[in-house]
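Hi R.,

As promised on Friday, here is the backbone we talked about, encoded as structure tokens. Could you run it through your design pipeline when you get a chance and send me back a sequence?
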């Protein structure tokens, strides 16, 4: 049994809009939303494994629609998407296949660690002075950029973790691009969205093979997320980089607190 259809569509719409604005797949927010919002309305919740499957479908839809907008607004560095996304796709597919081998409590613990790591990275990173600028990189400039090899290697691990949880992975990729590759914030958002699409595609394929993609729930959430992804991507350039980063960090902390409460109490 799935929660009420309009509620699933609304959850997809809201998370998709936030994902498009922030350049994330949205899964890191979608999973807590699917687990904890339906019971507020006395509706059945989805299990953690099913929630990761729906989240991967949502990440695929919202990242596809948002990528189209970011590409045409020149926020996306396509060569960097190909380098990082290509590395992460292998990990994403393997992570999607691995979901069934982890108990629920292990997946929730990994989710907590993922949220905590992202919050730590965002609090520790320092501004490099070009928050509002945009960058243009050729493929040659991309593959010769400092730390690109390390970033590509780390992307494999990011892809695996993302595939396991059904998240897009840009929660790790955006801090990595910002801190290691010194990419301006709005470029990291656009590039992160494109990379998320490739990871989500691989993750979705793995979870589909494992039977963790419920068709009805996924279609409802995905429909909302697709519309939200376009809307959010169009809103990105209307807000300052500092505001976008503050919103992102606030949502991460809220999700972390909610999952911690469930595990501890």
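Update: got your reply. Pasting your designed sequence below so it's all in one thread:
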């Amino acid at each position: 049994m799935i929660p009420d259809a309009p509620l699933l569509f609304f959850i997809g719409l809201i998370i998709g809009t936030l994902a498009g604005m922030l350049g994330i797949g949205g899964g890191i927010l979608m999973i807590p939303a699917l687990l904890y919002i339906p019971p507020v309305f006395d509706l059945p919740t989805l299990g953690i494994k099913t929630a990761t499957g729906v989240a991967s479908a949502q990440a695929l839809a919202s990242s596809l629609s948002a990528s189209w907008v970011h590409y045409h607004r020149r926020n996306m560095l396509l060569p960097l998407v190909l380098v990082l996304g290509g590395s992460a796709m292998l990990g994403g597919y393997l992570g999607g296949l691995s979901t069934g081998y982890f108990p629920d409590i292990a997946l929730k613990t990994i989710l907590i660690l993922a949220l905590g790591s992202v919050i730590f990275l965002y609090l520790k990173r320092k501004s490099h002075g070009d928050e509002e600028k945009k960058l243009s990189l050729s493929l040659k400039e991309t593959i010769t950029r400092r730390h690109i090899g390390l970033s590509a290697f780390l992307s494999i691990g990011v892809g695996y973790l993302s595939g396991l949880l059904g998240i897009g992975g840009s929660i790790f990729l955006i801090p990595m691009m910002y801190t290691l590759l010194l990419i301006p914030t709005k470029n990291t958002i656009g590039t992160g969205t494109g990379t998320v699409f490739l990871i989500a595609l691989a993750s979705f394929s793995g979870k589909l093979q494992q039977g963790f993609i419920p068709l009805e729930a996924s279609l409802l959430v995905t429909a909302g997320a697709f519309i939200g992804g376009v809307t959010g991507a169009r809103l990105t350039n209307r807000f300052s980089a500092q505001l976008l980063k503050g919103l992102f960090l606030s949502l991460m902390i809220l999700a972390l607190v909610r999952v911690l409460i469930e595990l501890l109490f």
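One thing I noticed while checking it: Residues 5-264 form one domain.

Thanks again,
M.
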